Amino acid sequence: MGRKRKNLKLEDFDVEVVSSDSAFSEKQHLALNEDWVPESIDEICYDGGARSGKTYLVILAIISRAWLIAESRHLVARYRLNHLKMSLWRQTLIPILKKNGFREGIDYKINESDFIITFANGSEIYGAGLDDADRVEKIMGTEFNTIFINEATQISYATYQKVSSRLSLNIPSIINKMIIDCNPRNKYHWIYKYFILRQDPESGNALSERRMKRIARRNWTPLDNPYLSKEYVERLSDLTGAEKERLYKGLWVDVEGLVYPMFEQAIVEDFPIPESWDCAGAVDFGYTNPFVFLWFFYDKSNETWYLAKEHYEAEKTVREHCKVIKEFRIPNTFTVADWDAEDRATMAENGITTIQADKDISTGLQAVMQLLSNQKGLKLKIFRSCVKTVEEFSVYSWEPTKEGKNSKEHPVKSFDHAMDAIRYFANKVLGKKFNIITRDLEKVRAEESKRNKPMSADDVRANRLRMMGVDPGYFTKKR
Fold first, then answer.
1. pLDDT band, very low/low/confident/very high, at 436 (cuts 50, 70, 90)
2. What is the spatial distance between Cα 468 and Cα 273, in angstroms, rounded to a whole number?
3. Axis crossing angle, helix 361-373 with helix 417-430, rounded to the nearest 10
4. Contact of 155 with 130, CB cutoff 8 Å
5. DSSP-derived secondary structure for 163-197
6. What is the pLDDT at residue 4?
7. Is the pLDDT of residue 242 over 80?
8. Is CB count within 10 Å lower at the N or C end of the chain?
9. Can you count the helices (H) and strands (E) in the chain?
10. What per-residue confidence (pLDDT) applies to 49?
11. Residue 257 burial (CB < 10 Å; 0-12/13-18/19+)?
């Protein structure tokens, strides 16, 4: 017979670990009692400003759960492994253990190469990055009682769902919990839709009443952390614009640093597409990462392309994706695709001919920006139902500038599969408009005319000598 589940309360935790009044603020105490104790809550979101105490609270609670419940297993994760190492692992988790009297080698031991902390009672805390397919697959082979994703705005909803499926270790004396924390981004992000609006991020439909009751969300600001210095709080209050709204006030607003900050103005409500409109397609291949196919329809009356449908799915073959594409519509103008020759050949075998994409990043980004911002001429609008594409737009950001180095002006290479497909499409429809000719036009024309003129026998002989490294004039010069 299994052990009877025990609903843990604050007084059940080790005094030095959790329940000390010096460890938590009033709001943190409230969060522990209302979010972590009830058996009815299994998903928790803590969003808000910088240094508001949300990550500290989660880590200390996870340590307490591991220390109290023998053989339990817990995961702390972040999108990039190196960010997990430097921030969550070395600057938060390990210092909290030491500060609260845990002794390495006696109370716990650390496997630094695999990022595993094993306590004396057999419980474990795993650290992981979600930016590598092999690491994610390793997680998928393990079951946990607690899963915490730090700065979860960096991951997709699909990744959240995939990782949360591993919250399945059955120990009767512990309530399994899925927790995320983040600084706010914009209101198109899946976290805002799921945890705040209580909508399915993919369909836009309201979550079921049962699911709503199992979700807890709490917003934080630096003012909720009484242990911050007055000077630090004042520094945050002196921020301006979107950064102040996000990091000081904890609000969900447009994020500075987005590659396409104008994308929201291009979103339109769905409407029936006339059969007479031409259709184009764009493909970004993937297996472990999603395979993306986007359908674009052209309204000649106002020179507008509408991104009206998306197919966005991982872990299926190209042949299977082709079946889905053909069920809806094969584009009648062009389908531009990533360069993978084998995948393009497979699509051709299944009746979908593609052309090779122009993958130039800088030109493609400029082309997309022009299509999104144009009021006249060629434009791009996006159906609201293309939720995966809209979600990618909401997080597609420039690489942050490293201290002492110039900005590379490249987007962060993550969660960008629809963004790549849109870039291929934009480069195709705008063609060579962004190629700048810096040479004198008359010289270019003169060279073209000369190249098109038939060569004489003397010209052929002279060219042959030049190829041999000999000046043709050497033999004709008078001495």
1. very low
2. 63
3. 80
4. yes
5. HHTT-----TTS--EEEEEE----TTSHHIIIIIS
6. 41
7. no
8. C
9. 17, 15
10. 86
11. middle
R_g (Cα) of the chain, nearest Å: 29
Residue-level pLDDT at 52? 87
Burial class (CB in 10 A: 0-12, 13-18, 19+), 156: buried
Instruction: Dihedral sign for Cα 315, 316, 321, 323, please.
Output: negative
Query: At residue 20, does pLDDT exceed 60?
Result: no
pLDDT one-digit tens code per residue, 57-97:
999 999 999 999 999 999 999 988 888 998 899 999 999 99
Question: At 394, phi and psi to the nearest 5?
Answer: -70, -15
- Structural domains in the chain, CATH included, are 10-247 (3.40.50.300), 263-430 (3.30.420.280), 448-475 (no CATH)
Angle, helices 157-164 vs 133-140, to 10°: value is 30
Comparison of pLDDT for 28 and 257, the residue scoring more:
28
Q: How far is CA 458 from the centre of its chain?
A: 62
Distance CA 197, CA 187 (A): 10
Average pLDDT over residues 148-163: 91
How many Cβ atoms are within 10 Å of 359's Cβ, its own excluded? 13
Cα 281 versus chain centre, distance: 23
Tokens 């493609």 locate to 364
Rounded to an integer, what distance in angstroms lies between the CA atom of residue 394 and that of residue 255?
Answer: 8
Whole-angstrom distance, CA of residue 166 vs CA of residue 126: 13
Which among 155, 157, 151, 144 is positioned nearest to 116, based on CA atoms?
Answer: 144
CA–CA distances in Å: residue 127 to residues 59, 75, 81, 96: 12, 6, 9, 15
Which of 12-21, 165-174, 341-350, 399-408 bottoms out in mean pLDDT, i.e. has the lowest? 12-21
Q: Are 189 and 391 in contact (CB under 8 A)?
A: yes
Question: Does residue 53 contact residue 25 with C-beta atoms inside 8 Å?
Answer: yes
Residue with tokens 């198109």: 188
Longest dimension (CA), the chain: 111
DSSP state of 361: H
